[in-house]
Fold this sequence. Notes:
Number of helices: 4
Helix content: 55-70%
Amino acid sequence: MIESTNWPSWWQWWLLTAITVNTVINVIVFFKHRFKKQYVLPKKRHNKVKQGRPEIKINTKSFYRDVKKGLTVRKLSDKYNISVGKAHKLKQKEKENENE
């Protein structure tokens, strides 16, 4: 028998174990992605959904009354369920009408 065999020390065992585990993981990932089915794109929708709040008609008298009360654009848009931009434009329009 061979009596002078050198066994690896503890850090060599850990290094050998880490390399083995890494290799096994890489092989699994390689074959999993290698034979993966091709992704089929979904059909495009012709009717696109608009982002933001739906456009609705508002009661302009009560809106302009709230503008005169001094409500902010954010509060106006939340109260009447309109976009902030539309509320801002209507508020500017009311201020221009007041100045004339």
